[in-house]
Amino acid sequence: MPYDLKEIAAISGMPGLYRLVKPTRAGVIIEALDAKGTRSVASARNKVSLLQEISIYTQDYDQTVPLSEVFDRIHQQHGATPAVTHKSDDRDLTAFMEGIMPDYDRERVYMSDIKKLVQWYHVVSKALEYQAPAEEVETEQAPAPSDADAPKAAKKKAAKTTDEPAADEAMSTAGIIPAAEETNAAGNPEAADTKPAKKTTKKKAE
Q1: Which of 17, 149, 166, 204 could form a disulfide with 33 if both were Cys (CB 3.0 to 4.6 A apart)?
Q2: Per-residue pLDDT tens for 89-134?
Q3: Is residue 141 part of a domain?
Q4: If 0-12 CB within 10 Å is exposed, 13-18 middle and 19+ buried, where does residue 136 land?
């Protein structure tokens, strides 16, 4: 993950972004993601939304793009400091969004979402270090596996998969909005509508 968003959250009623430090009986200790890094306690009544669990709608109704991937696209095209800010003209922000995510849903992703996306990216890019995705390097000089080792090699190769968001990760309901606290699918219309099919088994007649 280029930007590690696992402990970064937006908290209702509190401006900016915060790093979650540790939970307490009254809530959770948070650290402001700014130059001051002021620590405070977010009450259990505050809605804590992890950025890692937020996604953006695409024109494919069943598909969304994780915020971490959107941030990576922004970094690839614009670096750590994009020319636009959340105060930029709506036309510039729309053009910016179309450049990084041409297939975003124009009806379900609002201008307020795009502004929040840009604002969050500026905060994250200043506070966190960008980690380039690791590239797998194959050694050509490595000896070819023998016939006995072939099944093992095949299994190892099949085990490598690309990092994709889990099916139960929280999805936004209007582009970029906070997900439910400490849940993945709760309060998510998309997740609620999708239920795993029950498996049925049939006994063969002997």
Answers
A1: 17
A2: 999 999 999 999 999 999 999 999 999 999 999 999 999 988 876 6
A3: no
A4: exposed
In a domain, 32, yes or no: yes
Closest listed residue to residue 42, CA positions, set 62, 25, 67 = 25
The 10s digit of each residue's pLDDT in 78-89 is: 999 999 999 999
Domain span at residue 30 reads 8-131+166-179
Within-domain flag for 2:
no
CB atoms within 10 A of CB 163: 9
pTM above 0.90, yes or no: no
Question: CA-to-CA distance for 101 and 99, rounded, in angstroms?
Answer: 6
Listing DSSP states for 153-187 in one string gives HHHHHHH-------TTS---SSSS-PPPTT-SSTT
Q: Other CB atoms closer than 10 Å to residue 190's CB: what's the count?
A: 16
Could you tell me how far CA 40 lies from the centroid of its own chain? 25
Q: Does residue 151 fall inside a structural domain?
A: no
Q: Which two tokens stand for residue 155?
A: 């299994």
Tokens of 77: 């095209």
Question: How many domains, the chain?
Answer: 1
